Amino acid sequence: MNTEAPKQTSDGRLGDFLAEIEAVVGAKAILTAAEDLAPHLQEMRGLYLGDAPCVIKPASTEEVAAVVEICAKYEMAVVPQGGNTGLVGGGIPITSDKAIVLSLSRMNAIREIDATNYTMTVEAGCILQNIQAAADNADRLFPLSLGAEGTCQIGGNLSTNAGGINVLRYGNARDLVLGLEVVLPDGQIWHGLRGLRKDNTGYDMKHLFVGGEGTLGIITAAVLKLFAKPRDKVTAFAAVPNPAAAVELLGRCRTLSGEAVSSFEIIPRISIDSSVKHIAGVTDPLEQPHDWYVLVDLVAGIEDGSLSETMMTILSEAFEEELVLDATVAASEAQAAALWRIREAMVEAQKHEGGSIKHDVSVPISRVPEFLERAMAAVSERIPGIRPVPFGHIGDGNIHFNLSQPVGADKAAYLARWDEMNEIVHDIVVELGGSISAEHGIGRLKVQSNAHYKSTVEIEMMKKIKAALDPAGIMNPHKVVD
Questions:
Q1: Per-residue pLDDT tens digits for 150-189
Q2: Which residues form the FAD-binding PCMH-type domain (predicted)?
Q3: How far apart are CA 220 and CA 326, in angstroms?
Q4: Is 361 domain-assigned?
């Protein structure tokens, strides 16, 4: 434990609390120095800065349970944290709370790979990329894939029901887990690590914790689904006349490929321009500029050339019907990586264009074109010169509807209108039967918005579940449901 004295809590018992914690996890697993705390107290976008007397890093589920039991005894809130790559402040303690950060980073073991059962049992602190690699080494696929996969941890992925680029084929994180091990708010351990596809013995408890953002308990381990590893992949980058054509093309791809589409992303021209301008190594793959593009991956279990023929057939027919204006198909893994680099670079490129107001929304796929048309018109009417940057997983209806500031605008003044822009966009989303949070979660950022847009019945059900499992309110307070 660091020698720098941590801030005292209001009841003056912090010394006793830390002594009991140290007896469980050891001195080295408790951080109290300001420089050690800092990385755990700031959200990656810089929207939230928290405060906590310490960060505790247990090494086992039993240690997590003991720490939580001690926290309950001292009425100390627990804010679970994985790789701290979240985008809604869910892993940051609120300054006014008496709370500690509980980091799962030391719990990073892959406990078992059962290739025959197509499952892998992992601890919550495992980095997503390492899980992908372990599955690959077992000749299997773990398909969850997102931009932060080199640092995010599976416990956080499950707690936020992460999405990513392969949801269309394989589902969200919720669809990729069979069993959980969870430490409950009173320190009990739920041993639910079952590798079963069928278990019809009552309520499916794991779904309370997947997407619960640590407000009901702490995921310490999980049984994950594995899949057969694709032997062939074909990547295409195509210009389309508008989002409606993109949705029509998606349907053609799914039908003609026999549901072989693993990713289907929409990209606006503004993202191509900013990525080429600001990110080294990014180039425009087509000769002429167009307003809209899609990035498509098809996968198959056998490499016999038929997948490439399928992609060419799809594009040829779409070109004849003017659903596609131009296209290129990657001839190698390197070319495919270059096309995906465009998609990955867009997020970084936006940072160079000034203030960006973010939205992570979803609507039914059939209503994506209507959403984009209405939302882009509405925000442009409210702020002339605003630059909408809508992109993302159109294949599952999830659009990252980001809004770059007008050229030359004052960044601080623009970002001060965040709530105003959110209301405009979210009103349209909800009217179209959509969600104000598609894959990033609620955290701190959207607690009030969630209460506004969800029905009273839904909010009351969530509060009752929270009260039943966490009556003292110590698990990640003021997140998801307040």
A1: 999 999 999 999 999 999 999 999 999 999 999 999 999 9
A2: 48-229
A3: 48
A4: yes
